[in-house]
Each structure stands twice: as C-alpha cells, then as structure tokens.
Amino acid sequence: MISGLGFFEILVIFLIVLMFFGSKELPRFIREAARMIGKLRLYSEKVRRELNEVTNITNNITSPEKSFRDEVTEKKDKFREICLKRRKSLTEDEHKQKPARIAEHLFETEEFKKAQTVLMYAATKTEVQTEDCIKSILAKGKRVILPYCYPNSSQMGIAEIKDYSADLRVGEYKMLEPVDEIRNNFLKSDIQLVVCPGLGFDKNGARLGRGKGCYDAFLKELKEKAPIVGFAYKCQMLNEDLPFDYHDIPMDIIITEEGVKRFGQDVNS
Q1: Domain annotation covers residue 70
Q2: How many angstroms separate the Cα of 132 from the Cα of each of 24, 58, 69, 98, 201?
C-alpha cells in the first residue's frame, strides 16, 4: 500500500485509470495521486494547527474576563448576605417608623416637588415600606407608576395605579404588582422621578440588587432623563465600594431615615 492512501482511495484510482488509460499507465497515476493527496493532507494539518493556535489565543483573552465577572458576582453575593442580615435585624417598630421618615425626606426634595409622575415600588416584607408613601403621593394629585416582572424574564413592564388596594395583586416573584387589566398603560418616557429599592448602596451611589438585573435593565433607558432615587435604611449603606459591573446603574440620590444623599454629599432635609 502506498503511504498516505487508504484502501478505498487506491481502489477508486485503480478503476478510473484502468477504464480510461489502460493498465500501463496505472503505476504512474497512483504515484502522482499519492503525491497530491499527501500535500493536501499536509496543508490540511497546517490549517488545523493554525486554527488551534487562534482558538488558544482567544481563550487566553476571554478567560480573564470570565474570571473577572465571576469575581464580581462572588463579591456581590457576599455583600447581599451582609445587607440581608442587617435589614432582617431591624425590629418591627423600626420597619414601621423609619419608612415614614424616609418618605418625608423624599417629599421635601425639589425633584419630587417638580415631578408629576413618580415610579415607585411595592415593597417586600423587609424592604423600605412604601404603601403609605404611595397613598400620600396619590393624595397629592401626582401620578404613581409601578413596575411588574414578565414571567421567566429579566424585563419589567409598568402600569399606572390609582388605588393601592384595588390595582395590585401578588405577582411573579410573590411581590405586589399591577393587575393585568391596567398593564402597559403608561409610557416609560413620561416618568419624571424614579424611586427603587435595593439590598445595599455604597457612598458613590452604586446599588446592589437581587442579582436578576431587572432594575438595571429598566433604568438604563431612564438614566440622565429622570432622577433615580434609592430607598434604603441606614444599615444598608456600605462603607466599602460595591464591585461595579458593566450593566450596573448608579443612583442619583439615596434617601435613608437620616436624610438625603446626593453624589456622595449629605443633604439633610
């Protein structure tokens, strides 16, 4: 057998040469065919090696990015544990009293006074409670918009509510959301002030969410178009800088029971 050729390759060449040129030309054609196939395989091997080298270079470039993202996620998870523990340590009385002071600070800001449409949130059990705040905003004649989550998605929709009790139901993540009948009845571009929750915040305004990315994706379109306010208890404010990811949206204002914080400066109301 000729080196570089398999049995079936030799058989095909043998039959073709035998049919068209006769038995005398058979040895020469086999040698030439073997030489050509050998070069083709050598070239193919070279191409394969070059592709492997490119793949290795690409892996070396992308692996540090993956490592960085993993490190950011790991740090955020640790901060989430800390913030959740702090928030849950508040007493029942604190959960009742502190939200009222936070709402008062909000109402005294120029951003709130100027806004006619306010995006709020319906709080979970340990978040800064917003039911009374929402009812007060409605009583002031302003329009209140609440978000809701699409099933199996990180996207949020919005709806205007006019009655806290009648217009909300338990939604996708066991949180109160606008009922189906009033959803998609408001344009995001008409929102003039945003108030959102968070597990933690740092001195630069960075927000730590639950990790689903719902608010960050939603706020991306509103940044620089409407003031974005974070509601938090003082215990949720971190001395350490939160790790920053490319999709994270920082707050313009953070309000706690102790006052208003803008871009790292305390402004007591």
Answers
A1: no
A2: 102, 54, 39, 12, 23
Q: What is the DSSP string of 42-111?
A: HHHHHHHHHHHHHHHHHHHHHHHHHHHHHHHHHHHHHHHHHHHHHHHTS-HHHHHHHHHHHHHHHHTSHH
The residue range of the domain holding 36 is 15-57
Phi, psi of 265 (to 5 degrees): -110, 130
209 lies in some domain: yes
Total number of domains constituting the chain = 2
My answer on whether 26 and 129 are in the same domain is: no
Look up residue 33 and give its amino acid: A
Beta bridge pairs of residue 202: 238
Residue 261 one-letter amino acid = K
Q: Determine, yes or no, domain membership for 127.
A: yes
State whether 32 and 146 are in the same domain. no
Residue 223's φ and ψ, nearest 5 degrees, are: -60, 135
Sequence-distant (≥ 6) Cβ neighbours of residue 154 within 8 angstroms: 212, 213, 214, 217
Structural tokens at position 131: 């039911």
**Distance of CA 111 to CAs 72, 190, 194, Å?**
33, 15, 10
For the whole model, what pTM was predicted?
Answer: 0.70
Mean pLDDT of the chain: 83
Residue 261 lies in a domain: yes
For residue 16, the SS3 value is: helix
What is the rounded CA–CA span in Å between residue 13 and residue 44?
A: 21
3-state helix, strand, coil in the chain (%, to 5): 45, 20, 35
Confidence of residue 37 (pLDDT cuts 50, 70, 90): low
